[in-house]
Amino acid sequence: MQTAIPLSLYIHFPWCEKKCPYCDFNSHEVKQDGIPETAYIAALIQDLEQQLPDVWRRRVMSIFIGGGTPSLISANGLDSLLTQIRARIDLSPNAEITMEVNPSSAENEKLEQFRQAGVNRLSIGIQSFQDKFLQRLGRIHSSDMAIAAIEKARQAGFENINIDLMFALPGQTLADSQADIVTALAQQTPHLSYYHLSIEPNTYFYHHPPEQPDSDAAADIHFDGLQTLLKNGFKHYEISALAKHGHQCRHNLNYWLFGDYLGIGAGAHQKITNQQQQQIVRRSKLRHPNDYLQKENKLSTETILSQQDQIAEFMLNSLRLRTGFEKQIFNERTFVNIDAIEPIIAQAMQLGLLQDTGDKLIPSEHGFRFYNDLASLFV
Q1: How far apart are CA 61 and CA 99, in angstroms?
Q2: CB 49 within 8 A of CB 88
Q3: Three-class SS string for 149-161?
Q4: CA 52, CA 108: separation in Å to the nearest integer?
Q5: 124 forms bridges with which residues in the sheet?
Q6: What is the pLDDT of residues 42-70, one digit of tens each?
Q7: Residues 6+ apart with CB under 8 A from 357
Q8: Considering the domain 7-254, what is its CATH architecture?
C-alpha cells in the first residue's frame, strides 16, 4: 500500500506597496486605482477549481499566503477567500496557515481579523532592525515599525511568529549584524529566517550592485549570528531557518521533503504527484496579474519531471535539512530506489559531506555548512 504524499497549498498575492531593489519575486506596485481584490479572489478560486481533479480526496496540511504583500488584502477579503477554499478542499483541522506581513501594513484590528479568519502563523518581513540598512534595502518601514509589528501580532493573539532577517547587507559590519541579532532575540519570536542578501537577475541591485561585505566577511557574519542564535535556544533545522522546539515551519518542511503543493495566484508554482502513474508534474500559472485576471485558463507551463530531475530536485530540497531524510521517503517520492545513486552517495561520504545511518542520509557538519558543494553532486 502506497503512503500518501503530504499536500500543501500556496496562494500568491502579487501586489506590494513598493518594489524593493533586491526583490525578484513576482510582485507589482499597487497603482492609484488600488487592488482588484474581488476579481482576484474570484480568479484564485477559479484557479483552485481547475486543479481539484488532480488532488481529489487528498487532505491539505498547510496553507502559505505569500507575495508581494498579502497583508494588503482586506480582512473581509481574506475571510471570503479562506471560506471558499475550505468549501472546496479537505483542509486539516489543525492546518498551519501562514501569512506574510510587512510591518508597514500591520494594523492591530486587521491582524486580529486575519487570526479570526483562520491564519495561525505570521511571517513578518523585518530584514533589519536598523534604519540605515532598511533605507539601503529600499524598505518602507522603520526599526520602530518593525518592533511594533511584532507586538501588534502578539496583541492580536498570534504566538507562532517568524521574522525574516538578512545579513551581508550593503555596508554591514560584524558589529552591525550582532546588533540585529540581539534585537531579534529580544523579540522572543519562536522562528527566524536568516539569509544572505543575494543579488538576483532582473532586479535594481543586479544592474546597480551595492557594495556588500566580501565572502570572508559575510561568512564570519553568518557564523557569528548562527552561534548566538544556537546559544539562545534556537535549532538550525534548515539552511536558512532556525526555530525553537515545536515551531518549525510545517509548510516549508513539506517543500524540503519533496511533498506536493498546489499553487494558485499570478506566477504561482505547484508540484503534484500521480502515484498510480509514478509521474510528477510541475506547473506554473500566468505571471502578470492582468493576464491572470482576464484569462479563464490560468496555466502558463506544465512539465513532467524526468527521472534525473526527480532525483536532483529531491536532493536539492531535502539536503537543506539538518536532519536529512529517510531513504524510504526518497524511494516513495521519486519512484527510484536509492541504490541507483549509491556511487554519488559514496562520493559525498568520501568528501566528508554526507553521513549514512542505514535508514537515513544526513548532511555532515561540513556538508550542511557547504550545502552548495554537497547538492551539486546530485545535479
Answers
A1: 15
A2: yes
A3: HHHHHHHCCCCCE
A4: 35
A5: 101, 163
A6: 999 999 999 999 999 999 999 999 999 99
A7: none
A8: Alpha-Beta Barrel (3.20)
Cell numbers of 189, please? 519570536
Tell me the residue type at 308. Q
Residue located via cell numbers 523579540: 187
Domain coordinates of the chain in residue numbers?
7-254, 324-379
Q: Which three cell numbers stand for residue 166?
A: 538578512
Give residue 184's identity as a one-letter amino acid code: A
CA distances from 187 to 111, 191, 232 (A): 18, 11, 12
C-alpha 299: how far from chain center:
22
**What would the grid cell of residue 185 be?**
532575540
Bridge partners (DSSP) listed for residue 271: 261, 282
Determine the Cα–Cα distance for residues 379 and 371; give it in Å rounded to an integer: 13
Instruction: Render pLDDT for 98-153 as a digit per residue (tens, 0 to 9).
Output: 999 999 888 889 999 999 999 999 999 999 999 999 999 999 999 999 999 999 99
Polymer length in residues for the chain: 379
Evaluate whether 273 touches 258 at the Cβ level (below 8 Å): no
